[in-house]
Design brief:
With about 240 residues, the protein is α/β, with parallel strands linked by helices. The chain has one domain. The protein is about 35% helix and about 15% strand. It has 9 helices and 5 strands; from the N terminus they run E-H-E-H-E-H-E-H-E-H-H-H-H-H. It has helices spanning about 50-60, 75-80, 100-110, 120-130, 160-170, 175-195, 200-205, 210-215, 215-225, and strands at about 35-40, 65-70, 85-95, 115-120, 135-140. A 5-stranded parallel β-sheet has the order 2-1-4-3-5, with helices on both faces. Helix 6 (about 175-195) runs antiparallel to helix 7 (about 200-205). It is globular. The two termini are about 35 Å apart.
Length: about 240
């Protein structure tokens, strides 16, 4: 049966938010990215261990996360980077992916800024309404099967926030950056499955993942049986000294 590390009061790593038994911090590293990456994250996503929006600032160099609350208006100057060549807001209801002009990009000497909306599909609509005039709204050519096994994707063609970034990098010919970041994404998903006790599903996931060869030592450590040190200590009885 799946278990929730949040509801059960499990001790969690302050950085990756996974139980110590499944902490992935030893393998996580900041990877260079040819884009300025910003995440507009709904407040309800902020403390969810499964969130790939939380993963982005841990592994994408120079990325930032901005918290969204309905009662607090967003400030354009806090999100839009003046040093960026342009801002693209990724959303399924945007225009088709513009052609890449390599000469113009090289001449400008500036990187493109991407704004990712990290929320449920219903929540993302309200978030988009506040930022859609700040830049170009762009739709990605996303197809295939999502590898985000920590949550059910409601419908075909729906992917996690991190996968949207991977699709964009691949579509723009940034295959090496996409490959390096995909390793971090798949390790995050695998460890999340393990932390929920979904052992068979985790094994099946790993069998199809490049993370197996990329992080052999960490995965071998995951497989080693150890005492359960993740649970919080029991509370003393009421009135106890």
């Amino acid at each position: 049966m799946a278990r929730s590390v949040v509801l059960q009061g499990t001790r969690r790593c302050e950085r990756c938010e996974l139980p110590p038994r499944w902490c992935v911090c030893a393998a996580q590293r900041l990877e260079p990215c040819p884009l300025h990456v910003d995440v507009l994250q709904h407040a309800l996503e902020a403390h969810r261990p499964s969130s790939t929006g939380n993963l982005i600032p841990r592994v994408v160099e120079g990325s930032r996360v901005h918290l969204y609350r309905r009662e607090r208006p967003l400030v354009r100057e806090e999100i839009v980077r003046p040093e960026a060549s342009e801002l693209w807001i990724l959303h399924p209801n945007g225009e088709s992916l513009p052609d890449r002009d390599l000469a113009a990009e090289a001449a400008s000497g500036r990187k493109l800024q991407i704004l990712l909306l990290d929320a449920s599909w219903a929540q993302a609509g309200g978030m988009l309404a506040q930022v859609q005039t700040w830049g170009r709204r762009v739709r990605l050519p996303m197809a295939g099967r999502s590898r985000y096994a920590l949550r059910a994707q409601n419908g075909d063609g729906r992917f996690s926030t991190f996968e949207a970034l991977l699709f964009l990098l691949e579509a723009r010919g940034e295959a090496d950056a996409a490959r390096r970041l995909r390793l971090q994404f798949e390790l995050h998903v695998y460890a999340g499955l393990c932390s929920r006790g979904r052992k068979l599903e985790a094994e099946d996931y790993l069998a199809e993942s490049p993370a197996r060869e990329a992080f052999p030592d960490l995965i071998a450590e995951f497989a080693r049986k150890r005492p359960n040190l993740d649970a919080l200590p029991p509370r003393p009885p009421a009135g106890a000294a």
